[in-house]
Design the sequence.
């Protein structure tokens, strides 16, 4: 079951999983789980290439490997929010001017979880004032991290 | 993949005025004056927005120095849309596999409970 909608510069995907939010959240943020599903079809994500530092400012990195060619696609993300089992978001500064991905986990109350995945390439300075206020602390940490590189 | 031109495209599209200008130009060419009319902003502000759009290759301007109508150039928008579409595909496949993984875990947990 999937529902994808595309707007200018943004992407939202809503999915329902047959597991509790705690389980889905853990799967999406634990290397031993991620290695089983992170790579799309035709790609693998070896365990030794996955780094998860579960906190704002922590690294979220994977290396996807093309099963046929062996070509590697590293992704270098930094967590902006990390709030289990409700939400996490990460930015990839190197992708299309800075992409932010935010995943929200909604408890449907019957053992199922709805996840809303929102990807945006809109740079932080264009975010609404409300969004900026809410994420200010995280971005301060993120800026500090970038400055330390 | 030309990440740089994608960045320019996404930055250009991040602003509501620029999106409105593009929507107007998608219907046909227009001069700066014509474009400025519906907006409560100065000609200079519109010109600045047009520069951003032009840098991203989303619009081009006519050669006539007196009358330089702006044209909508769809190619960068198509590249951006393709890129988003590819991402949508990746996430969909990823979640399909997560679904399988969750079922596998659930089965394993059930088995462990039985034994």
Sequence:
């Amino acid at each position: 079951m999937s529902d994808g909608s595309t707007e200018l510069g943004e992407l939202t995907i809503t999915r329902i999983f047959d597991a509790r939010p705690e389980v889905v959240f853990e799967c999406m943020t634990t290397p031993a789980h991620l290695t089983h599903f992170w790579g799309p079809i035709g790609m693998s994500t070896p365990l030794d290439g996955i780094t998860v530092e579960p906190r704002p400012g922590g690294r979220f990195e994977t290396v996807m490997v093309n099963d046929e060619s062996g070509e590697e696609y590293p992704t270098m993300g930094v967590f902006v929010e990390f709030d289990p089992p409700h939400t996490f978001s990460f930015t990839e500064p190197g992708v299309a001017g800075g992409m932010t991905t935010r995943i929200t986990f909604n408890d449907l109350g019957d053992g199922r979880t709805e996840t809303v995945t929102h990807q945006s390439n809109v740079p932080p300075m264009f975010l609404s004032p409300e969004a900026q206020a809410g994420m200010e602390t995280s971005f301060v940490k993120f800026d500090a991290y970038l400055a330390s590189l | 993949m030309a990440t740089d031109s994608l960045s320019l495209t996404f930055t250009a599209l991040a602003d509501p005025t620029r999106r409105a200008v593009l929507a107007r130009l998608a219907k046909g060419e227009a001069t700066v004056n014509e474009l400025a009319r519906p907006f409560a902003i100065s000609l200079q502000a519109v010109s600045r927005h047009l520069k951003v759009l032009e840098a991203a290759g989303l619009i081009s301007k006519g050669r006539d120095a007196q009358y330089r109508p702006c044209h909508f150039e769809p190619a960068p928008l198509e590249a951006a849309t393709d890129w988003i579409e590819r991402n949508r595909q990746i996430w969909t496949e990823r979640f399909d596999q997560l679904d399988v993984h969750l079922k596998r875990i659930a089965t394993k947990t059930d088995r462990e409970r039985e034994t």
